[in-house]
Amino acid sequence: MFNDRPEPVLLGWTGAVLPWYIGTMVNESKLLIERVQTGVRMEKRILKVLKGFAEYHDMTLGDVLEGIVLHAFDGKTPFSPASLERIRELKKFYGLDLDSSASHRLTEIKKGHDRIESERGKKKKQAATA
Q1: CA distance 83 to 1
Q2: What whole-number distance in Å separates Cα of residue 11 and Cα of residue 13?
Q3: Which tens digit of pLDDT belongs to each residue from 64-78?
Q4: Range with the lowest mean pLDDT among 2-6, 86-90, 96-100?
Q5: How large is the angle between the packed helices 44-56 and 61-73, nearest 10 degrees?
Q6: How are beta strands 8-11 and 16-19 bridged, if at all?
Q7: 3-state DSSP helix/strand/coil percent for the chain, to nearest 5?
Q8: What angle do CA 54, 60, 61 make, to 5 degrees?
Q9: Closest by alpha carbon to 47, among 98, 83, 111?
Q10: Ramachandran category for residue 58: left, alpha or beta (phi over 0 → left; psi -120 to 50 → alpha)
């Protein structure tokens, strides 16, 4: 799915350089779909790696996620060896030390949440006793 950037290919004597995905461009019909906006929460560094990967391949984050999910649903790996190497580089750059063994074990740190809830509770109790 995610191959490295194509190498430029010279066309004709004019010297015009055009990028082509040699052997991967297929004239398939487009599928019309409906997309929806979502507010999915995700670990910060994972998101940075995904965004970096999408930017490198000139894709949207949504396109990358759709591709990963569709490949996973079919039991296929979505990444080429070169893409996996790019992901390793991005993980190192963004300090992402998580791997699949962390799946379903991540617990979010709720910064300030407990303090805010505690203050709201105190205010309610004060208002009730006043």
Answers
A1: 9
A2: 7
A3: 999 999 999 999 999
A4: 2-6
A5: 100
A6: antiparallel
A7: 45, 10, 45
A8: 70
A9: 98
A10: left
